[in-house]
Amino acid sequence: QVQLVESGGGLVQAGGSLRLSCAASGRTFSSYAMGWFRQAPGKERLFVAAIMRSGGSTYYADSVKGRFTISRDNAKNTVYLQMNSLKPEDTAVYYCAARLGHTSYDYWGQGTQVTVSS
Question: Which of 1, 8, 12, 86 has the fewest CB neighbours in a 10 Å radius?
Answer without folding.
Answer: 1
